[in-house]
Alpha-2-macroglobulin domain-containing protein
Amino acid sequence: MSYGKNSYETLTFSGVVIFTDAYLPIRKLTDSCHEKKGYKPCFSEGCFLSTKMCDGYNDCADWSDESDCPLQDDDQYEYRILRMSRSDELYDTAGNDWSWKEMNADFGGEEFFTMDMPAVADEWYFTGFTLSRIRGFTTINTPIAFSSTRPFMMHIEGPTMCRRGEQIGLRLLLLNNEPYEMFVVLTLHTSPQYKFVHVEEGGIVTSYGARLSGGDHQHLVYLPAGAQQHVDMPIAPVVEQGDISVTISAMTQVGRIELVHNITVLGEGAMVNKHTAVYLDLKNKALVLQYLDIYVEESPIVPYQSWRRYVYGSTSGYITITGDIIGPAFPAVPLTTGVVLGREIKGTDGRIFELAVNVWTLHYLRLTNQLKWDITKQVLEEVNVIFGQVMKRFDRRGWFKNWDNSQPSVWLTSWAIRIFKHASFQDWENFFYIEPQIITRSIEWILQFQTELGSFEETTWYHNPLDATMQGKFSTRFNDSLVYRNITLTAHILITIHEVMQMVQGSTRTDAAKASIKAVRYLEHQLSSMTDPYEIAITAYALTLCDSIEKEFAFSLLHSKRLEVADGLQYWSRVPVPGNTIRYENQRPFICPRDYQTDDSVAVEATSYALMVNLMRDGVTVLSEKIVQWLTSVRMGSSAFISTVDTVIALQALTEYAFRARLKDITDLAITLELPSTAGFRETVHIDNETFSDLQMFEVPNVWGHLNVISKGSGQAVVQMDINFGVDYEGFRELAIIETFNLEVKEFYSSFRNKSFITIQSCFRWLLEDPPMSGLSVLELELPTGYNLLESEAERLVRSGVHPTLRDARIIEGKTFWFFEHIMQNWTCFNHTVRRWYPVANISLVRQVQLYETHAKGGKDAYVSHNNFGQGCY
């Protein structure tokens, strides 16, 4: 490539001689460069030595000596793109470097300040230096010794969550750091939230009939000089659900310490979540009424039956209202899989999802003129950390892998750099920047997997791709011969190449442009034989994005595949996706909560691509508004749709719609909520330009009955309701529309008195013939309160090869997560052992275990089995 100012100069710099009778304007040379001595002319003016070409320094005023240079490695490359933290802070003032302090001292003055000392017993040495215009650099002669060891210290630990009715032992550690004895008076302070548990003779506590008492409880502890003492403080929360704070103080002759331990009390049973989302459209109406059914009866009792509808005290619910069609923008910073999907995902795919949802939420706020700089800076600081976690599994040859011990993936690499491009924005570069070399190297690697026909294929390690929607298919030609087609992966990579092209450097950009043309021709050739709505949707988006000559044919084919539910809502899916069930009572339509459906994540992704095609072609129309309403109706979470990839694509599509529709400017709504089950509950929320992005949340006091939503004004809003309750009856297990997993879980308790060890055996298999194995899958198990497994031990178990497709593990309090590359059709099992960390009486009676595909759906109910989701109860 050359950058000459005219045609003659361009040919000259390219070393091409042309013979023509055409007129070629010639720039008058003002500089005579001595080529025999190694000088070359700059594009505009001046000369430079040929040995200094592409040396990283600008010898020409127009930088032409550094243009069109090949990619080069540098000594800092590994550090710059692979470091875990991309923060520009030199010192961790909140951690190890707690005493770092900078100041500007006045002439002849003194500075006094206080600093919070870390709560550790250690020895420290302080030093200091100054920079002065007169004296230069000076430092103190001898460091100053300082000890952070207190005379008396107390530490408290225990579970931070438990089930209703359980008794918890809080562990206190008392330390006497003085050379004399101490008497410590421990006080458990009174509270209506908990009571003291009396331990009877022999250390016996009756499980469901323990002797409890309220008020302050004091205990005298003798602590010899330099000794430490361990004390258990048994308590029993007496609230049904919610957060409690346990206050314990220690009084000695040298001082007093008071500590607070917070515990979240959960309802009993396997928790069921029911979500309902409604789109309030008042662009052409002045009044909209909606009635949302609450999926819980007033009483759990079923007459003449030994089972119950739900567990007493386990119900909870809340309502959220936002003017933003994406839902709550930033309920927490950063947005993680736990915040958005309500589950844990560990792996490059999960980190890319977290990067994408944070970036697209920022873009949504930016394009709707709601972005504030303070939240932007805060989010981008977290995005840097997530980006570092993604780059942990980047290879300098250009590919990404999902786990430390897995192989590179074409789909994952393409998906990663597409999100990187979305995250690259000029106004953010001072806080978040992505090296173009990363994009360039990844494109170079991906192009190796393009076939002669123009399609792309996965690496040989992934005959069944990580994302099942990228699975190639065999199709029959007119002569009855079979041909293998990989349309979805080709369209996916074509979208990526088109979007990242501006960041690709050097000759790789030319190669990428050629590959893009071949991929477009391949998809154009396959259009007439496509029947799968998902294939058509992603292909239509790719061809429209690349301005293909067949984009109109692709659009007409896409339009012919649309499906419709009540009220004319439009969507695209491989199988029909039923709308929310409507229950009529007293001539009122009550909208029931939504259940997971077959291929609903694929439907959301396909419909989102279709929405973007319609917006690029026709702008905001009645059809696009109907699509947005359907997308809102199938949400399974306040901030998410079904799973990971579909949520990201839906966020992108809704951001594009919101930018074009400009509904924020016309929104002026008054939304009134009424709960007939709670006397006097009537809340009114006003949404306008000032409160458009504010999250309004209300708790449901009495979880039964229904919710009345009365909206007046103009504009739009989204109302969502979540209802949770616990069940303990196997008969409430709902069979999936299509069973995809078999799952069996057994527990083996140790023979010790307090069941110190539990070995959990998990056996499972994939049930479908097509595809012959699952995609990325997660096994999620709840643990009894007080039991735990170190994540390092879980990772060691993974590395031992205990299961052939087990790739990683994640441990949080009360749960273990096991991540599989795929689940096979034959039965496979693996065991893991958890240990009791804290003394807890009344072992959790009902716990849940789930097995689901990462890209298919999510859920948290032990008794309900949904699409692509197998579960059991133990």
Summary: The radius of gyration is 32 Å.
